[in-house]
Amino acid sequence: MKFVIVRALMLCAFQAWSLAAIAGTEVYTGTLGNQPIVMELKSDGSSDIEGRYFYVKYHADLQLAGQASGTDSLSLQEGYSDYDKSVLPKIELKKDAQGQWSGTWTKSKEKSVALHLQPAQVPAPAANADPWFKKLYTSNLYEYLRLSGLTLKKGERQTFMGHTLQWWSEPGSKISMFEILDGYPDAQRQKINEVLRARLWQEVSNFHGCVSGNRSSGSNYDQTVTPNLLSANLISISVFTDYYCGGAYPDWGDDPINMDARTAQPLTLEDILWVGEGKPVRYASALPYGYDEGADKKDSDSYASYRRTRFAPWLIQQLQTLRPASVDENGCDSDYPDDPETAFWWQFPTWYLTSEGIVFTPSYPHVAAVCRIETPALPWKIVREHPGVLKMTLP
After folding, report:
1. Of the chain's two ends, which shows fewer C-beta atoms within 10 Å, N or C?
2. What is the C-alpha separation between 194 and 162, in angstroms, rounded?
3. What is residue 307's DSSP assignment?
């Protein structure tokens, strides 16, 4: 009897999805006029539909929003307008028994253009394909179809800390990253370069996510990549982005790559610096996005407590010693001994490594962006007195 009930519930769930015009997230390929396109449509189970599409020739997203009527009709609007939505292109689609959509794309009173879509059928990546693309194929087919149509342009070579760097860029976004050609064992270097290449493609994806749908508002995603340290154990690269993705204000910030060169795995600050009591702890919550699957609330609470009660006060004290308090022309105080609000900025600073030490940048709220200061590097001599989890040889 229990089996019958469960099977009935599963059947009801399937029928509920089958009654929806769009079930969850669906990806389609097709043509708009004579131009190949890729479209993604999403639904939360209601009649509201969100989506996006790009022309294969151009790769840039065009945003969609609209409504489903029953199980076989969609009415969508392309783009955004706060003033006159009647000027925006409209899409009308009907679904056939094979799950294909056909209809029209119409702008204002201009002639309509035929639109045809079918569920995306995409061959799996080749066995020797970039590992990042293999992962993307299973996790985000829409993004896979966009990026797999792009190619990288070979740039200049650079020598840095005894290593030869070959730069590559994606011409459309102007996103760039290097690969390391020498100075590490081949197998180790291959793992390092896979991480660097994956970051390049991730930033290309971020570029499209930022500027798509916001081009009319002057959006931008300008990035500068700077190698800071390449040692036997440590790799640290600044990835600084000046961006405006819509909204009230532009912003900027650094999202560095800090890597254990021996394993090509990401470093947490606690891997190399620990100022707490007892044995150093590596918190899963401190890992970059995509690596923190093991984090839980208890881990997050412990991590936040350590950073608040031990790390931030200690770091502020060290920086005050390295650079005495001062007030610049903007009235920004570089000394934060008694201000709980600004001390909070130092609990989770961004950081990268140099031959001199660790450079920290506090996590400023946007309103305080004018007060971004150049902090001195925390010298390796001090860091070595507070070894982290890995206890590796430091510069």
Report:
1. N
2. 20
3. I
Distance CA 24, CA 365 (A): 35
44-51: Cβ within 8 A, 24+ apart: 45/16, 45/20, 47/21, 49/21, 49/22, 49/74, 49/76, 51/76
Q: At 121, which amino acid appears?
A: Q
Q: Which of 162, 175, 165 is nearest to 205 (CA)?
A: 175
Taking residues 8-15, report their average pLDDT: 37
Q: What is the mean pLDDT of residues 389-394?
A: 91
Superfamily name and number for 20-119 = Quinohemoprotein amine dehydrogenase alpha subunit, domain 2 (2.40.128.120)
- What is the crossing angle of helices 131-139 and 186-211, to 10°? 40
Residue with tokens 């962006």: 369
In 3D, which of 11, 57, 4 has the Cα closest to residue 35? 57
Report yes or no: 25 and 42 within 8 Å, Cβ to Cβ.
yes
Report the amino acid identity of residue 264. Answer: A
What is the residue extent of each domain of the chain?
A: 20-119, 150-266, 272-395
The contacts of residue 193 (CB under 8 Å, 6+ apart) are: 179, 180
C-alpha to C-alpha distance for 284 and 269, rounded to whole angstroms: 11
Task: Compute the distance between CA of residue 314 and CA of residue 316 in angstroms, rounded to an integer.
Answer: 6
Instruction: Report pLDDT for 11.
Output: 36
Using DSSP, state whether 383 is helix, strand or coil: helix
- Tell whether the model's pLDDT for residue 342 goes beyond 70: no
CA-closest candidate to residue 270, choices 228, 303, 221: 303
Residue 103 and residue 113 in contact, taking contact as beta carbons nearer than 8 Å = no
Please give the CATH architecture assigned to the domain spanning 150-266: 2-Layer Sandwich (3.30)
The H-assigned helical ranges of the chain are 2-18, 131-139, 141-147, 186-211, 269-272, 297-306, 312-322, 340-345, 380-384
Give the residues across from 156 on adjacent strands: none
Stated pTM of the model: 0.84
314 phi and psi angles, rounded to 5 deg: -65, -45
Highest mean predicted confidence (pLDDT) among 103-117, 229-243, 291-305: 229-243
